[in-house]
């Protein structure tokens, strides 16, 4: 039964939040306010690290929305990551638009281009869909590699920021990254708590059964695909504003999808907290162990294998199942209503 439309039983209440989630909301607001002041007292290296983590997190969250909640496993989301980055650069370098304004425009362009791309991708399913999205990303890469105006295969530099001093550029990029992270979490959370979120979960669990219950499967899958593309484009535009240089091999590398899969699997697929935990772990491993070369890559693979074997729901999923932790609860629960002593029946 759909709890969003079912009448509440007089002896039960519908609970959507938890004590942990309410405490996390207060802590989260405090952390965001403190983080917003970082450019006034922190070091520039801290801001650059945060922008990198933010891009990882947003991209992983969108992959989790697509695969973990929508059941569409893609290894070609880098197509929209790179497309958003290139649109941002072209708007900044050639159209005279401020690159920070061009970040959401690049994301919007990635979402729009996902509509015609979906006509091809949705003809495939299962493993064929995953491979097909990779092929589409390669088409994007080769296409931009043959455009001399953006540097061809060697790429080009974001020149639109030359007139802005380094401190202003870094602080603005940081604030944009913080705003994008907060917006991504809020939008995904509110979407999953809505009726459309319930429909998406029904499609993931059983597409045929969901359609038989009146869920518009094709329309919902397209909507999620476009939203995931928008988020990937947002992460790409933000990343290359901070990086100041873009190339087809960097923008459309399959490593982006591999990183997203790693972060989601480690943190916990099908959970909003999963990409956040996974992004922090992935960044920390890269920060402290990337100098070990191939041993670092072997360590990443070994960690993924261990989580797959012993923590099938990811590290956060394990913590959630064992201790009941849920910062972003999207499920509805029926709990017995506590009756006051004055209303209790005698004897």
UniProtKB/TrEMBL annotation:
Domain of life where this protein originates: Bacteria
Lineage: Bacteria, Pseudomonadati, Pseudomonadota, Betaproteobacteria, Burkholderiales
PANTHER family in the record: ABC TRANSPORTER ATP-BINDING PROTEIN, HIGH-AFFINITY BRANCHED-CHAIN AMINO ACID TRANSPORT SYSTEM PERMEASE
Bilayer topology: Multi-pass membrane protein
Chief location of this protein within or outside the cell: membrane
UniProt xrefs under CDD domains: TM_PBP1_LivM_like
Pfam families in alphabetical order: BPD_transp_2
Protein name: Branched-chain amino acid transport system permease protein
Localization per Swiss-Prot or TrEMBL: Cell membrane
Transmembrane parts of this sequence: 20-41, 53-72, 102-122, 142-161, 173-192, 222-242, 254-272, 292-311
Assigned keywords, A-Z: Cell membrane, Membrane, Transmembrane, Transmembrane helix
């Amino acid at each position: 039964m759909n709890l969003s439309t079912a009448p509440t039983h007089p002896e039960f209440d519908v609970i959507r939040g938890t004590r942990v989630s309410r405490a996390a909301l207060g802590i989260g607001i405090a952390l965001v306010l403190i983080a917003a002041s970082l450019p006034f007292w922190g070091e520039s290296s801290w801001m650059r690290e945060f922008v990198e983590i933010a891009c990882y997190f947003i991209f992983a969250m969108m992959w989790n929305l697509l695969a973990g909640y929508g059941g569409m496993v893609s290894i070609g989301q880098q197509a929209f990551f790179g497309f958003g980055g290139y649109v941002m650069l072209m708007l900044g370098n050639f159209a005279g638009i401020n690159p920070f304004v061009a970040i959401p425009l690049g994301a919007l362009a990635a979402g729009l281009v996902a509509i015609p791309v979906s006509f091809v991708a949705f003809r495939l399913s299962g493993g064929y869909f995953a491979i097909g999205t990779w092929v589409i990303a390669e088409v994007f890469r080769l296409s931009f590699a043959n455009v001399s105006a953006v540097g061809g295969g060697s790429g080009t530099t974001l020149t639109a920021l030359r007139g802005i001093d380094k401190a202003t550029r870094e602080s603005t990029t940081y604030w944009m990254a913080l705003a994008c992270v907060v917006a991504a979490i809020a939008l995904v959370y509110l979407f999953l708590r809505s009726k459309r979120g319930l429909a998406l979960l029904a499609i993931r669990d059983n597409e045929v059964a969901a359609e038989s219950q009146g869920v518009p499967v094709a329309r919902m899958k397209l909507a999620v695909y476009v939203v995931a593309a928008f988020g990937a484009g947002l992460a790409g535009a933000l990343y290359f504003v901070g990086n100041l240089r873009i190339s087809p091999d960097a923008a459309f590398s399959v490593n982006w999808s591999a990183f997203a899969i790693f972060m989601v699997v480690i943190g916990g697929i099908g959970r909003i907290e999963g990409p956040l935990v996974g992004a922090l772990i992935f960044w920390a491993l890269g920060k402290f162990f990337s100098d070990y070369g191939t041993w670092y890559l072997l360590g990443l693979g070994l960690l993924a294998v261990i989580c797959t074997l012993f923590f099938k729901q990811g590290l956060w999923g394990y913590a959630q199942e064992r201790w009941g932790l849920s910062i972003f609860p999207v499920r509805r629960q029926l709990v017995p209503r506590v009756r006051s002593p004055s209303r209790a029946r005698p004897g």
